[in-house]
Design brief:
homoheptamer, 72 residues, mainly beta, SH3 type barrels, 5-stranded antiparallel beta sheet
Chain lengths: 72, 72, 72, 72, 72, 72, 72
């Protein structure tokens, strides 16, 4: 039986795209996650409306997240 | 005695339609779910107002979900 | 001693009307519920403002619900 | 030592008035409650702004409730 | 070592003023409280913007509360 | 290893400034706190936009708090 | 196996940038954190829209946080 968080397990050290409840999007390399869907990303960038900001290493608190998809 | 999450069990590997609290809708093939109603979908598409975006594989965090119905 | 969720127990396989926090209303036949008030409905319809949509089988995540009443 | 939910215990089978976070008010006869303050009411009516709707038997999910007072 | 809820213990059977997240204020005589800060008040009055309403006995669900102070 | 709530431990019986999610600010002397960051303050004052109100002794429910800093 | 909160462990006594759900940003030296992502910062500054305020030592309640990144 597979579990939803297996999507994250198979994305480790790969690029992911995250959509936040605020409408912002974060892309980066997934390094680690936990059961709350807290994420550690490297080389992350956040996009909000008209602006884009390089964050580098970042911790995303899981309760802000709507969806996560593996990047291409 | 049946339980509500049995709807998801019988939809595994089938198409589902998800309505989010934000008003967005996601469709895709349900691969896995857990007790928080976190979902793993394949071949997913998200529709918001006037736009539609192909997501492919996606993890949906359960607390964003209003309803889930099996697709036709 | 009765408990509030007994309202749901006595409505099984009967029509119920659900009001969501979003203001939408869902009607359908109650098949199953759990302690989070997650619901499985059959032959469900959702009404929002000016529109009505047939959903068929549906899982409603309990934290969206304001009230549930047995239909007539 | 008394506890707050004793207000509900002493209101069983009596009329209560409930104010919801949405601003709506529900009145009805209290039949049962639990520790989440989920309520089962009979002969309930909901009032929102300009409209009033007879609900009959109803389950109110506790997390929507601001205050409950015994009716007169 | 004192604990914050000791403020409530020392206010039992005395007048308290409660500010809710909605902006409304409730005053009344504190009869009982629990660890969720659910409150039972007697002779309570609620004030919202331009209106004031006598509630008498009331149960306030704790998650609506911002601050509680002993009345004068 | 230090923990974040040690900031509160070292501020006991001293002046603190609290910023709430509503935008209001509360200042006062910290008497007690718990693991939910519920606070008991003495000689507290709340400032909202254009107004300032003396509260005296007050219990602040922790889930309303954004930040707490020791006063000067 | 690494965990997301390791980002915080490796930032101890270093500069971090925090984005809050309110849109405000806080920078400061990370002294301590816990599993709720409550933070203790020293020499902290908060920026909101057009204003910047020196906070010095501060406790940030974790549920307000969107992302945390190590400063440069």
């Amino acid at each position: 039986m597979q579990r939803p968080l297996d999507v994250l397990g198979s994305s480790q050290d790969k690029n992911v795209i995250i959509q936040l409840k605020s409408g912002a999007k974060i892309t980066g390399t997934l390094r680690a996650f936990d059961s709350h869907i807290n994420l550690w990303l490297d080389e992350a960038t956040i996009e909000e409306k008209d602006s884009s900001l390089k964050l580098g290493k970042v911790l995303v608190r899981g309760d802000n997240i709507v969806i996560i998809s593996p990047g291409k």
